[in-house]
Amino acid sequence: MPNSAVGLCFRAQLRSRRGSWLGLGAVIGLVVSVSLAGVAGARRTASAYPRLEAATNPADAVVFDTTPNPQIPALDAGAVAALPQVAQAASMRVFDSFEGQQFANTFGSPGGDAFTVGRGINQLHLRSGRAADVSRANEVVVDYSTADRDHLRPGSRLRLRLVLPAPGGPQWIPNYQSTMPFTFTVVGVVATPGQFPPETGFYWSGPGIYVTPAFIAAHVSDLSYYDANVVRVRGGAPGVDALTAAVGQLTGTGFQPVIIPMGQQSAQTERSFHLQVVALWMLSGLLGLVALLVLIDLLVRQAVLESRDWRTLWAMGLGRGELVRLGLAGTAVTGGAAGVVAIAASLALSPLAPIGVIRDAETHPGLAFDALVLVPGAVGLLVLALAVAAVPLWRAARAATRVEPGEQVVQERPTVAGRVAAAGLPVAATAGVRMALEPGRGPTAVPVRSTLGGGIVGVAALVAALTFAVSLGHLVHTPRLYGVTWDTEVTNNNGPDAAAKGIDIIRSDPDVLAAAWDYNVPGTFSAAGRGSGADPVQTSIQVLDPVHGLVHPVIVAGREPSAPDEVALGIRTMQGLHLRIGDSLEASALDQGARPLAVRLVGQAVLEPGDSSGALGTGAVLTRSGLDRLAQGSTTFPPFIIAVQFKPGRDVGKATGELQDRLQALDENFGATSPQVPDTLVNFGQVRYLPYVLGGLLGLVALLVLVHLVVTAVRRRRRDLAILKTLGFTRAQVRRTVLWQATTLGLAVLVVGIPVGVGTGHWLWDLLANQQGILPEPATPILLIAAGVAAVLAAANLASLIPAALAGRTPPALVLRSE
Question: What is the SS3 assignment for 297?
Fold first, then answer.
């Protein structure tokens, strides 16, 4: 192209227009970068925990050396490590300790090969500071949750009270009434896989404090502790069963040792953060759609501006195809600049991910270049820019090379501006509405429709993001949406029999509407009888056995089970078994080896997880007689939770406190607490402000597009404004015309964008709710939308003030002569 006419024209345009091309590319790149950063952030959030596990070499199982039964001999750590099923093992010592009044897990390794930064099994990932010196007894590192809770950092002092052993008993039997104070220096903050929610009761769940081998050697005889072995199993998690059998033979007593498999922890933790990743993907897609519309608007506008001189170039000998190639060359510069800026801005935003608690699992915080997202994104941006610009450029080239025999009279259709004029509004209002909604003709034409489309999509995306955010907050604070239809849970530390003594008090409470024992037991369901080929599903079974009134589960389709052979399932359990309401299936409860019995699916339910770490959308609902039938004689462990539902309109906090006072007057071991929020929602709730942040970015984009439209439209309408002034418009009328133009643009964007945004936000939330098995009940941010309406109109009018003032002062002869 260097020796062609197109090349000469391109080089001339590059000298004069490279600033506008590069500036436009920068604007497009910045808009697109937010979407690319969201996609890269979602991938980084999803992979953070697996990467932490890969970096820390976590154990597959924990084998405890001692048991509460002194008749059982302690296991020998060397014998455990020598088993053929064990690929790697390390010893661990656990002390009972208190931080203030808070129980804390204090760990250490006598040999320094476990819980030591940089070596061995179950390594610690150092978040800040340094590793503890193994030869210094006063140095410790703490996990991130302890550091956040107690505002600890490297250099902080940490005071602990470690528990002494019971007099005359083994070292591992503690005497919690006797403690020894210690003051440690925190030298580092760490993260380990087992301490991320959901914490499933494993040995390192809860606050973690890690002492050195020097401390253990100094206090081997004066503190209470127990030992355990952390092991990597040959074959990974599937080999834990074989390890359990082999360790059982080491005791020589037939006693089954305590072995905790760790694979479940990893799966539950990743599942608990899945909802965040899904939300990030959704919001990133929404941002991508906005970026696409903004890109189309800006490139169409550029094509219109670039084609102003094409009739002259055509007269000089350039053909239609050469004009298109010339326009595409400029678009390529813009698209290339946009790709570079998008990569750079996305890279600059990358330290914001991962989000939420899982951020502490990130092994390489800071800048992160996701080549699988950023490189295809930049290349795709260039290709998309060329594809978008091709059509308007071809149309502009065809218009520039068409010979017009003479101007024809075109009969205009009724327009909004015409209706405004017919309504008798002031002439300034009529002119402003016309300039806002009609593109005009010839070289002063403005691509109004494409820009309005960009503004509408920006406002719609903003409203959708706000709707998503408000719906998230509504979910976290509305237990009914995730299957909890009661207000409080009554328990007694002395067990189910003691809890049952409070039933009469619950029944007599004037605030109580209903109460039921809340059973959660394991069950197995299979659709094999239907020949579906789906594997059996093991999940929790919920039974609300009434003690006063009826506490109903949340049923979204079908009905609640009422007979012993009927069941309702969570949506994800139904999908896993490929079932529909009315189908028959087989089920058993408690004993996985029991013969399954036939049941009929009568409803789809929204269920609370069996525990806080359980998955949303899973589980089954049975009647009490149905549970007894499936248990087939197996011991049905009595429940220890009484679910209490208060009457509508009661203050739940006040009613709970008064009920607890009555119960504790009977037995101080009673407690009444709010139902536990599933960890998935806890983690998701910790990033519930993310949609507001993204919504703010979307709103900024929408406002910038609208401001760009107003300023450009006024500049392109200089000739129209000059003609109006020659017809007698005063400066004040010109200014009012421009303000009417800006207000009309803002109203047009809002009238269409708000309903589309609310509908889109509801659709996205319904999609997420159905996927996660929660009750789809989106919320609408009415107050935020009202504030947004005021902000958009104010921004449009403020953006028009300077152009309006300039238009009012510019002599019409100067404008018309330049035109």
Answer: helix
